[in-house]
From TrEMBL:
The keyword DNA-binding applies. It comes from the Bacteria. InterPro entries: DNA-bd_dom_put_sf (IPR009061), MerR-type_HTH_dom (IPR000551), MerR_fam (IPR047057). It comes from Saccharothrix xinjiangensis. The keyword Membrane does not apply. This is MerR family transcriptional regulator. Residues 1-71 form the HTH merR-type domain. Keywords: DNA-binding.
Amino acid sequence: MGWSTSQLADLAGTTLRTIRHYHEVGLLAEPERRANGYKSYGVPHLVRVLRVKRLTGLGLSLAQIADLGDADEHPGEALRRLDAELAATIERLRRVRAELALILRQEAPTDLPSDVAATIAGADLSPQDRSFTVVLAQLLAPEALAAYAGVLSGFSRDPAMDEFDDLPADADDGTRRRLAERLRSLPYVKEMSATFPRAEDMLVGAPRGEEFTMRAIGKVIVELYNEAQVDVLVRMNG
């Protein structure tokens, strides 16, 4: 006499719902029925359920197991692929843990890559300038971002920067011109100009392309800075 569905589930260490689901997705053949209409499972059904349970425990999906067909007794190729995926996942988690350790040790912010955050940790940036840097970190090539962060590492607050931060949108032309001249003479601004002589130089190797990156940076600048501030930035780099 065979086993009932509940007995099969108990022997396999699973649930009635799981057994029924295996039937629904075609992973477990329907058993013969007794005279009273109840299902009667045999050893092959138990072996099949245990095998599916083992493979799902290793990480294969039910769809992958179904694709194996008769090869599920020792699905070498599928298991090798799974092993490669697990190795990649372990390596990714190792990198994440290393970055977490760095963030915790340095009490660094999480909206910037750890190396960039460490480089500009001493820079007294305004909220707008910092937000701009966060966006650049998503847009620039690693080399350009490292160079930009390197210049920021030498940033120090100057009265001209405070005046720029407080500049009203309706500032007159003379005020804008004089402020642009003062800012252009700052060591930080000179170093940035020397590092990126042309605006396009910062875009070299941008992962999303130079044109896209230029448009994105333009939108960010317009959103972060008011009309007068944008005008001063243009004059600084003109």
